[in-house]
Amino acid sequence: MSVPSSNGKIVLISGINGYIASAIGLELLKKGYTLRGTSRSSYGADALLDGAYKLYKDRVQLVTIPDMTVPGAFDEAVKGTTAIIHTASPINFSFTSWDQFVPIAVAGAVGILNSAYKHAGSQLRSFVTTSSVAAIVDPSKPKYTFSEKDWNTYSYDRAKELGGEAPSGMLYQASKVAAERAVWEFKQEHNPPFAITSINPGVVIGPPVEPPPTADALNETLKPLWFVFSGASTTMPPAIGSASFIDIRDTAAMHVWAAEHPQEANGQRYLMANGRGTPQAAADILRKAYPDRKQIPVGKPGSDYVEGWGWPEDGQSFEATRAKKALGRDSFIRYDQSVLETAKVFERYV
Fold this sequence. Notes:
Blueprint: E1 10-14, H1 19-30, E2 34-39, H2 45-50, E3 60-64, E4 83-86, H3 98-119, E5 126-130, E6 145-146, H4 153-162, H5 168-190, E7 195-201, E8 203-205, H6 223-230, E9 245-247, H7 248-260, H8 262-265, E10 269-272, H9 279-289, E11 317-318, H10 321-327, H11 335-346
Parallel strand pairs: 1-2, 1-4, 2-3, 4-5, 5-7, 6-11, 7-10, 8-9
Helix pairs in contact: 1-7, 3-5, 4-5, 6-9, 6-11, 9-11
């Protein structure tokens, strides 16, 4: 395999050892970029150098930032970069209150933007932030087609009203709304010379570029698939949120496209969802592909999803035309392909 020479450009990715960030990083390295990745600790990031990034080690710079919410935390890391892709989040799901979730999420989003604005340099062209469909999907609208124009004001307002009584899922949704809003408010207030873009993926699945050493360390969005595949859950695990899915490879491609097309992407949100992929749908796919794995739960075959893993006529749906057009695609990777190629990775754990 030939390794592309350096194109002389540096891209900063926050949270480089994360599931989404590591996939984005690999795509950039394949294109000749120098990758500067930040993480809370070197653990995990070092594994990339010995694994997925091994061929490109000379173009990988790792930076440890223990607390991304500290003002100025990214001041040095942003210097000399052509693009910044902000995937990291300071949120911990052990948090239980509004004050733990929302202000911290906002501080993480605005802190790196301030560093970019003040210290990156005039060569910076793009700032891409990883948001979520959680910032878009209003759970109070059970039959509605969502697009980039929508905001999840319901969860934000309700979580603020309930405070510590709000469920963690609602607080997470509120934090995504608040963090992305803060990014757009920063753009409006400062009018920075670089483009700002938001990527709003659904539940991201698909094979990780660097599988963790144990299944316990899998990304949260892959765990329901693992529970089904492994039989760790004797009953069907619940779907995550609206169960809108998108493959990790499509998600990574969208981030890279936005970073490379600042004029077209500036000021845009890109919703990424390809249909409704539930644990029941995954179980049906996996039982057929792995007939000897009797531990895969049966549930109610054929229920809780539509054929072809699209959108139900009587439920929520998503319009992802903008992202498909940007990437020059008629469709994204299908649910069955994502599930089966993820299962191939899972085989190492059984």
